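=== RUN LOG ===
request id: a7f3
mode: sequence -> structure
chains: 1
length: 414
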Amino acid sequence: RDLPVDSVIIYCGYWKDELGRAHVPADLLESFCRDSKLPFFGIVDTHVGRGAVGGVCSDLRAMGVATGHLLVDSREGPPPPSVNVPSVVILDDRQLNRFRIPASRLPAGSRVLFREPRVWDRYWPYFVAGGAVVALQSLLIVALVTQSRLRRRAERIVGEQRDQIARAGRISTLGQLAASLAHELGQPLGAILNNLEAAEILLRDDDTANAEELRAIVRDIAADDQRAGAVLDRIRAMIRKQRFTIGPVEVPGLIRGVLTLAGPRLTAAGIVVTVACDPGLPRVAGDEILLQQALLNLLGNSADAIRASRAGSPGGAEGAGGHRDPGAIGIRARRDGDAVELTVIDNGGGIGEGIIDRAVEAFATTKDEGLGMGLPIVRSIVEQHEGRLRLDNAPGRGLTVSLAVPTWKERTSA
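=== RESULT ===
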């Protein structure tokens, strides 16, 4: 008959049916439980494992042992009034799972039989062995990748050192060539100066209309000759690592002198130069000829960059409306702590990302006919003045180069 779904069945045993046929209680329990939708609970431990969920069961083995002791004791005297048979809570894990009875509902001290081992319990040696193999393979892969990276890094370092050695050799050769040129050019420059002095003496007594203009031209040529000789002297001193003379240099006068020398070339190239000097700038400590040369190199680099940018622009270096985009160079001077910062800004398109990190190294150039010595010379001059050099690159727009030179007051008081 049907029972409520929340019912349980307590099975005590069934030995003989109404026809007198004998049965084994555990076998009948197994057949009952096979088709039952309700849980069976037993009273002896042999019911557990034959379909019953479990129960407070008597231990038949312990019962047999106690009965044996009772028989032995009865031969020696009167039997005890009763025999205590221990009972424990025994459960079948398979039936607990079948009827979804959670472990939290089990009494404390329950003994659960037929528990299905977990995957880890069954195969943990294989898991450990597989994990060890994977770990070893991972370590091997990491070691191989690290070794490959270290090898590539070592090859790169060796290549860079090889390039540095070759560059040092070229610089040494260039230094020897520069020293030789400085020596060889010194004599013709001296001869030119002597001839100019003679021409000035001859023009001194000439009263013709063009005499004064000729005398001015001769004086300009003589000044340029003397400056060229001074530059050669500085080159020889730099090559020989001699200490040049430091003196106070007026920043506005320094910039005016540079523009006097570079102005005609920049004007002819259609480049507009703007100058912005903060008022009251202190004098800087340095060699005026070398500082002029540094600024001239920067202006020359900017002019070359603007010319190259125009040549590579669409429409034949012409902007909207058929007009050429003007080249622009800005020179700025401002106080920067204990130094004066001189900045040259251009709109020449900047330097490519691949070479900006090597821009101040010797022979690093983007020009087809360039030597790559402009910025290295500027860096050398700035370092000899104990200053700072900074490059701010804006690809597609232009380059900003700033050099900071210590002030004369700060330097002499140090």
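=== NOTES ===
The chain has a mean pLDDT of 78.
The first strand starts at residue 9 and ends at 11.
=== END ===
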